[in-house]
Amino acid sequence: MTTEISIQSKKLPNGNKSSDTHSPTDTHSLSEVNSPSEGYSPSEGHSPSEGYSPSEGYSPSDGYSPSEGYSPQWRDTVDYIEDITYRIWEQGNVEYVRDTYTPQCPVWVLGGGCVGAEQVVVNTTRTLDMFPDRTLFPTRVLWNGDNVRGYHSSHLISTHMTYRDTDQSSDRDLDEEQRFDLFSRECHGNQARIRVIAHCMIRDGRIFEEWLVRDNGELYRQLGIDTTMAAKKLALKWKQDEPDHLEWLGSEFNRVMEKDEMGFEEDLQNIPNKFHRPAYRYLAHFIAERYQKVWGFQRMSSGKSFDDLVREIYHPHARFESPQTGNKDLVGWEGIGGLHDTFVFGSSDSVKMSLDWIIIEPGDDTREKRSGRSPNAWRYPQPSDLKHKEMFHSNFNDTAADVAESFTVAVRWTLAGKVKAIDAGISLTHDPLDIPSDREARVVVMGESHLQCVGFRIIRDVTVYDSNAVLAQILLHSSSDE
Known about the structure:
- By secondary structure, this protein is an alpha+beta fold.
- Helices cover 28% and strands 23% of the residues.
- It contains 13 helices and twelve strands.
- α6 crosses α7 and α8 runs antiparallel to α10.
- The longest helix has 19 residues.
């Protein structure tokens, strides 16, 4: 489910808590919990199956059922998310939000969040007034967790919409976009298609926390709105009306910069066969740790180091899509490696990435060895892949053949770092906020990525974050003010 466009109309105080919610800075956050895999690293060749016997099994909860907590109408989390999203958006049953969100559910958004089912109803109604033909195509829904701590869903959406200018949407006393004159009558009839990822936590059939990422910068561009002006107006809104949101951004910056960069937790209860879970834990760490190095400090420090690790984890002909590419595919090592200089933290010597939640979903194939046949060149394109393959079969000799050769990893992440305005290709000349162009800005990027993998490489990366809110931070913040 996704609350979408009009979400910024109600402030989300930093640290807001209720009996059924927690803040991203609470101890439930992955940066604060012990990882069940602590003490091993796939990059060092250590196997999480060491000392493991298939006869002992691996089961976080015996008798686990993916339908636990849901009404009989839903089989599992995927069924739930697809169903309620379609009912609320395409079928226009906005009141259904009250049955599927808790009263104090926080919705975390980089541009500004909201609290509670009632505000989600208001925001959804306003969005449908502006975009009455809006569709939310469920590209993929990944899940894990349970009904005790909460199910996690990562819902990758392709959303298409046409802006309609109405008397209501011309009333500048409504939500953030309208109050700051981002939409005009000239936008009427313009269409847009953007990516969204809604990451929900669900317990007893109700969403009690949500992280929402969407590329508002690309939405504005397609609708004919000046994206730099949109970011300036968002920054002014934070400064004038939402000090609590600025405080939250500051707390997220500190959380990421102070945590152990490699610490994260995975949940494998979505893997039906408990004996396969150690192997999937290994694969999740193998991909996530390298992904963190690509986009964190270790490889952002120079273009060459970035390109080197891109070649270690991405397929030679991988496809990459993100706000940085204008939601268009880049293909291959050369295309992805060229992103370093234009990334918001490119060449920054102060950037860290927090991996806040990981989901791994197996494909339908297996890694069964076929004697007398050459390995599939698409799945194992480099000599190093064959070495990883042999090591994987050696470490998990009892189960490796039955583990999927293709899989998808969803990573909810937060980047924090310092960046000069010039690094983002933005001129602050005549900027109404009067921030000198040679000053550093403290920037937080909240994002999520769906990584489609084969063998031991990423073949498709769809990454979503709000480029407009990133630009707004660059225009607003300077290191001397923090």
